[in-house]
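In response to reviewer comment 3 from the previous cycle, which asked for concrete evidence that the modeling workflow produces usable outputs, we include below a single protein chain processed end to end. The sequence was submitted unchanged, and the resulting structure tokens are shown without manual editing.
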Amino acid sequence: MNYIREFFYLRKSDRKVILTLLSVIVIALVVIFMTGGSNESNELTPADTVIAKRDYRDSTRRQPYREQTKTVYVRTKVVYRDTSYRRGKALSEAAYDSVRAPYQKKIKAGEHVVLNTADTTALKTVPGIGSYYARKIIAYGQRLGGYVSVDQLDEIEGFPLDAKEYLTIEDAAPRKLNVNTLSLNELRKHPYLNFYQAKAITEYRRLHGPLHALSDLRLSKVFPPEAIKRLEPYVDY
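The workflow returned the following structure tokens.
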């Protein structure tokens, strides 16, 4: 009782300090009581991470065995089945041809396919040529206006050079370009004429009149001798 009596006889400022301290202590005790004194956080600990990974592996093991077999089977179809969709996923067309070509019916050594008259079916009988290169040969021949030499196949990217010995040219009659009447855009469509060469031809016609021979262009820096030589079979005046 003396302590309580002495407390009320303290100065007012001292009583405020003591009451403030008591309030802080009470609040701290209440917070500790409500949280249970635990220092745990919501972040995952290394142990939690290990448990999560283990649970994932366990759920994988519980998958039916037939589903795992089905997954492997689908992957096998993607690699080996003969459809354009699956072949595109697994191999390029050129690579696919190199794998499939040995199992197709092929001509023998000494036999030949005529290059300018063969269709894709005939071209695929040539060793080393499948659907991909058969289409490339036909498409490039159309752009050229016809082949005049088997060596022109070297201009097709990645072409199997060993296949050339089974191909031959007979009675070549390439489609001609009239260099005196065709426009710049029409001239440049030919594989042997780029924009600058086509422009040189049209500029020569404008300044000097019609060409009489490709040698008229020999002074142009865009027409070296080799360019004139390979273009000659395809030119008319």
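The CA atoms of residues 52 and 120 lie 58 Å apart. We consider this sufficient to address the reviewer's concern, and the full set will be provided in the supplementary archive.
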